[in-house]
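User: Quick sanity check before I run a bigger batch. Here is a single chain. Can you write out its predicted 3D structure?
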Amino acid sequence: MSTPPAPTPFEDSLAIGYQPSEAAVDTGHLHQLARSLCRDERRFLSFPDHLGLVAGELAPLLGMFVEHRRDPYSRDDFDLGVQPYEEAVLAYFAALAGASADDVHGYVASCPHEALLHGLAVARRRLPAASVYVCDQAHARVTRACELLRMNLVTVRSLADGTMDPEDLRLQTRVRREAGALVVATCGTPLRGAIDNVAELRAAAVASGRVHMHVDAAAGGLAAAHSDQVLSWSLAHGAHSISLSGDSLLGLPGQAGISLMRRVQVPAAACGIAVPERSVICSRGGLGALLLWTRLRSLGRAGVAALVRRCQGVAVYAVDQFARAGARPERFPGSLTVTFGRPPGWVVDKWHLHCVGDLARIVTTGSLTHTAVDELAADLSAARSEAVA
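Assistant: Done. Predicted structure follows.
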């Protein structure tokens, strides 16, 4: 596996000067960057590194500037014809999360972080004095969102499998029962890919007063929806709002988030058509919705299900191979994440593994095939042999 070339200091070749640069030279820089990041030269087994869309599919979209000034469901003088595409994407993800398009409000956000921020902001309107209850295994974006919204965050301990402990949640919410509880469940935790049981967590918190259940499903929603396992993770299982994403598994060349919430949960002030009541920002780029629509249409529901099954099959295979290599692998049922004992530095550097403490992980999307798993397993086995020797 070749090592990407060291970047040239930007002061010499990439600085933005007073005069225009030569287009051919700049194109050469970008082509070199693309080659250095392509999956044949660099493998990021902890993060998606593939593109499901080819240049021919993207070309028509990259020649347009699309700005939304209204919500996805309105038609007015600002309508550029993109809203129906966004509505189609929202209808797809609503069905995925166990609701009909008529039962939910939503929009395509610029990234999963914005979608989460929107979900928490709307939840705060329902329960303005409630604390936010978050598992210690949740994504850091939840903590950041609470900081931005100045919401009190209460950390709930996790169980051995990485899910939120319902009993600890019950105890924590009872302490603050007068204000209600805003519980953030996670579908696909960053390290273990664990999926919280939404129905169980809601039942644990409901005795303390009013509850709003939000699910951060950006990392695991698509996989959970197509899993053979029976998982309680979505609007169908008691969630009031949910934030999702399709960019990692679907292989988009940029981030896109989906914010959905049941219409009965949206305050009356948010039922108008003004964008500030529906989204975090007043105007939005429409490229994310178009990219999602293009990719989903090219796959169809059957194609997405087949893609998830292939990725889950690779995860199952990885657990078996890593166990043979003595790496002590673990996988939450239905997840695309496989964790294992942290290997020596040369293995981590070679495969660009994400590590936390004594654990490393891979995510079986994109270019992570059975062959790649075999190669990593061989390195894990070699590292184990070196340690024994």
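Residues 60-297 form a domain with the Aspartate Aminotransferase; domain 2 fold (CATH 3.40.640.10).

User: Great, the batch can go ahead then.
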